[in-house]
């Protein structure tokens, strides 16, 4: 499959006289795709029911005639003021009970049925107009679900929807009371109409209550998205896409992805580094102008799974952004590196955000490929360089990685709801495991929790999985590689309760977690041989062999040759040792990489990316800062 | 009086078939008491007015027949959903004006008269059913007043009640205006109906306004408790108890205690260590799995005073809890140490919380004596060990300690209201004094602020007392030991104003605080001889002798042989020196103790508790980590 | 003009029998002025429409007969309870949507038209009573606008007023949509009645929306003040004054100042040090009892500009205050130093706050010249010393400083609205520039942004100016000194958009900021010759000469001999070097001063102030800690 570049463009922000010039320059830069339309509802439908397609027709035609392909976005992330005036209760409500007002974007409640009807209507109208337009080659539905914490709403609409959802799920209040354990504090309900959304309770609500609300809220994102899928499917053959965000866990992306053709995400490596990625102060300074060396790779691998193999980067940071606590400029070369890294991880297209920096409104300090005065910004030349390099590249055929990581959204909600330790976060644990795999030079596949076939992989990690699915448990029962389960895996049932017998329930492996400790930053559990657990430590019992022990003589890893349980959260050095040992046992070759260098293998090509601020030499090859190197695999 | 053990049990959480087995195992462990019932309103009264006592009858009978004594809890901390539906305004309102919703516990407003009627009704119904039951040997009223910050409410009910309370107190708005100094910012009221609860003001409300609201709110807890006392007293001869919490200062426990027979408290040493007890990072790590070595002792001594000599621990941590920022497991032996420490401080009973870890709802990560799967958790064996040791113990007769500390709830409200320094907290100051006494090996009695007889004590400390009571002032006038008053003592009158003449007003002792400085953490006031004040320093004037001076020549301690005023907040080393000097002067012997070792003397027995993580040797005796040693006093 | 001292006094707080004694003691201390009345509405008008002037008549007469001059304050910062009961919607509303309740002060909304009518009425009534009273020699209107963050309100009154203000400004929704760039996220309005105050939006509102709301809110302060000016002007010839606060930026003080005769401010050097002034931990400890050595000077210079040359200090800290996080006592001598520093910067009068410490209500821990028991507090003797010294002083004629700093309130709002870096604050940047000038021994004039004549100054700094005004741009075009513009100057137009062509637009100077980086604390941009930029760095292009470069070869200062642009935020050392170089080039002599020593030159006298905690020797003169020295300029 060929790799392509693109850009996000807002014709409505610029005089029509400029469109053809812009289109020609995009084409000359080597771009293929132009995403448009996703915030333009007020121009498509300036007053209720009256559409104005003229300007959009001309924009599509201008871009198409220049040889570009259009990604058409539905504008449902920015309902116009008149629509909010017509249904003021379409606004979401925050956890403090305050409506989230008009005046920016994403001012809608996923639970609001009236707004869904409006979204279906505008999507259908767009599909009727552009579904068969030869220049419109893909569709984006809405924009960045959950951005600005918009998945969870505590509105009347959410309350009503939640009650219905619970009634469907449990059929009777008695069944719900039993499942949630409402006997605990006299919390029984006699009717579903007595159940509230779980905010503003005196102390923490029942975690089972919260978990069902998290599931309900995720389901509303799925349903909201499906409304537009259903409207567009009959009207177009172009692929349907949503642009997800980094480190967003409030809805089950796999489920949204089932209804779509491609998963795309919006990659802002530097914006994320300062406060959305773990790291020491030294790492944050080292990678200040590059982004964390594993953050982009993780999301590429995750969204490749969400997209069932099909991945795009819909928005790629080209320069300083406007929304992080601090916004430095990328190191020269990074706009190229990020694109190649995406391709190496399977992306079919990488679109820079945005073509020209807007001189007005909220994002006026967000760089583009052009400056506000239309002169080239630094990333333009890097985009052109990538476009030129694409032609000379060998095929980047997808391949199966040697190792896999199970990643589950529901588990993220579970440990949000009941962290037990103040710094326990599911993403952080999963990312710690992923980073260890990457430091060992391994390419990684991320798998959903209902995976039923692990046979392609020599090593599988499953950290922090709330509950092993039946299919995964079955796969583990016959697995011939090494699976490392835990910590905090399979210790709850689906009702967010401790199962009896207590977990984990690993096939043919007698291990039980009998006591759990969360550890403050000052504390650690020392292991035999020099490692240590931080944050989390589980006391294990059972007859399974002990592979690793604490200095105090407690089991740290227990299990058989294939299925093992990890009793704590290893720090980075310790994780490196554990991964190294498992790879040796599984005959998976690992690499010794200098700091900042990362490797990704496709079927036939090995890519090296230098995320560091200085050149590195490895295996005889010197790669400059922000440099990319590729070579054929033997 | 014999010492006994017990446990908290929730028969409603388990199948009835398990009850007899549980009861037999409790008995076999050596337990005497079982507390039940305190969250089970929805089972006692599933629908309004229809009681279901059958299950509770059976539970009491099963436990009683096994030889256990029941502590019966009234369930008023968890009103059922149907009750909230009937009187939605029974919910408290937080300082931001938001109702505190159903869905956890303690969802009621102490000021709500309708809810008080309901509480009286359920208490009376329980009393009628179980007041003369031979197995019910004690009662607990409600559960953990103020838990989850529930004393203060800014509801309509609170506003109405507060206005009436003010009208009763002041009789006329003019009197209130004068007492509060409302002339200050044109804040005069013409009618009590103009007075609001003191939240959401533009800047700080009048501290006199806040103080009266704090007094009013405390009085509502007293009144709320008394409603149930009044309902139960005619129906039972068993003692009435409430289970207070650690470091809870929002209501006057002495006043609640006046209506009850025994004061009990819920002791969670490790849960408190991480964020509810002062300490350096090093101390927090040293005592991570033991709890702060003075925190339990302080509360035992405090609640012994609240209980007018009768003390229980109603809930004793047995393993990791679920609610602290970090939740490690206790060091082996601590579940035994904590119980013996409670007995040494006068506790008649220590009940572990809880029998079996619940697999569902909010506290499913809270350890019990049994694991969720009914196998023994580590604390069970320790409880059994204590039970076995009790029989062999000499009598633990109460005695009067050589030193006393005055502790006053109203002062805590005063300095909350007007801290003057960001880190000034009354408890912290009192606890600093207490810790210094304990480091000197002293047993301590805590006394209420209206104490009228100090003669049993050789040394009395009164730090941070807003106003000396008339009785205390009279006691000081004839006191022949040494009393160290201050800092920040007797500097306000009961109207929260500076008295004229300015304080303190110590009998026959000419000392006046003429200027007050609060100090940032970077600053200190150096004393002659090497000590220093932190946080707080008062400039003293007067003709009384100066016992200690600052390096700058200002008085640090002034007064006569018996009555002295301390002008600042000594750091720990300095406090040790001051206490040492005073004890020498008062001929009170002190001890040199290794770090982590604590001493408590009863009438005839000296107890040593090693809170440290390593063995210590003292006076020829080696005590292991978490170890307890006792010996007859000469 | 003679320099005078005064004091703030509240006769309504004390028995009338004490007034004459107080007045005599004030006079004996050497005081000239007594400010009264500003919180006494409830006494002036105890019930609606019924005035009680008797007490105030007597107070004025008593003070006047003692030889004192009265500053009469209008009491509109403390509307009585009965007034709030009559118009409950006069309360402001906070950003969370909660009314800001009665119970302290400043409980009014600047937008509320009904309250303006009431303020006009009480001001007129006071003017009629005291406008020609021979003892009333000045007026203060209201008290500390914006104190407790009261400029911005999100009330219904503000919403209505804002809509009208926008309608006046833009005339049509289309014009507003265009100016704000509302096309960006479909934010267009069809009617002004659709526009809300910009709080509680899902993510950040349009910065142009926020900026207009900030302008609107500032205009309401101006209008509110003008209502009282209009009421008083016909009734008195005494000067009208408002007492501004330190570091208050929410309204345009220059505009308020246009309607008044004198600018005064309330100077609390130690209260501000702990959390309202930048500084390292070491500096904060060094100046703990003196205040930051440049903070008072900055505000004197700023408010001298706001007062069009006429400056007072209406409230001068005399001892510990009650409202800072920590409240230590001033170093002996500071109450004298602060007064002389104010005089040296042009103050006509310095009034200490307050005469006697109040024993009741919110400020009872705030020191006065007297203690609550009427004995002298430490500052009384220092005030008397200043009063004695005034007579012997040479004339302190105003003069023009050699250097000027442009300071603009609108720019503060702009960078609040769009900081781009988490630690970017306009005041901080301007104060960094000012401090560098002071460390070089320079006296400074602060100028408003519409300054049209720079010719008196050899050096002008304009850091952080959102937009250069036409008049300033014209002045720069012919300026013969050196003007250093930037960083972040002239990069926005008045619509809060990036101008095209991009800025800055400096006359005859080809420099453009093409890319902006905000830097986290860990990062710095090294400069040739050893300096560095922190926080902020702009990439410059253009043909103007480069005066200074980064180590990476990018321009750091560009421009011609007269007009230069500074591309980043220099740290203190670097700023010292830049200022030194510019002064050399402009032939402005600078001084080498020891740490903590500051200099201020009047026309004929040089003042030295030692803010340090130890004596310093400079040019052969030794000045004690907290010492003041003056000498004739050659």
Structure keywords:
3 domains; Rossmann fold; seven-stranded mixed β-sheet; TIM Barrel; eight-stranded parallel barrel; 24 strands; 18 helices; globular; 634 residues; alpha/beta; homotrimer
- Report helical residue fraction of chain A: 25-40%
Name the strands of the widest sheet of chain A in spatial order. 1-2-3-4-5-6-7-8
- The CATH level-2 architecture of the largest domain in chain A is identified as Alpha-Beta Barrel
The coarse overall form of chain A would be: globular
Summed up, the helix count of chain A is 18
Biggest pleated-sheet summary of chain A: 8 strands, parallel, barrel
CATH homologous superfamily label of the largest domain in chain A: Glycosidases
Low-confidence stretches of chain A: none
Oligomeric form of this entry? homotrimer
Summarize the entry for a quick read:
Chain A is of the alpha/beta class and 634 residues long. In chain A, helix 5 runs parallel beside helix 8, helix 8 (207-232) runs antiparallel to helix 15 and helix 13 runs parallel beside helix 14 (378-392). Chains in contact: A-B, A-C, B-C.
Helices and strands, with pairings:
Three copies of one chain form a homotrimer.
Chain A: E1 4-8, H1 19-29, E2 33-36, H2 41-44, H3 54-65, E3 69-73, H4 81-86, H5 113-130, E4 136-140, H6 156-170, H7 173-180, H8 207-232, E5 240-245, H9 253-258, E6 262-267, H10 269-276, H11 281-286, H12 295-306, E7 311-316, H13 334-344, E8 347-352, H14 378-392, E9 403-406, H15 409-417, H16 426-439, E10 444-447, E11 459-462, H17 470-477, E12 482-485, E13 512-518, E14 525-526, E15 532-541, E16 546-549, E17 555-559, E18 563-566, E19 568-570, H18 572-585, E20 597-601, E21 605-610, E22 616-618, E23 621-623, E24 628-632
Parallel strand pairs in A: 1-2, 1-8, 2-3, 3-4, 4-5, 5-6, 6-7, 7-8, 9-10, 9-11, 11-12, 12-18
Antiparallel strand pairs in A: 13-15, 14-15, 15-19, 16-17, 17-18, 20-21, 21-24, 22-23
Helix pairs in contact in A: 5-8, 6-8, 8-15, 13-14, 16-18
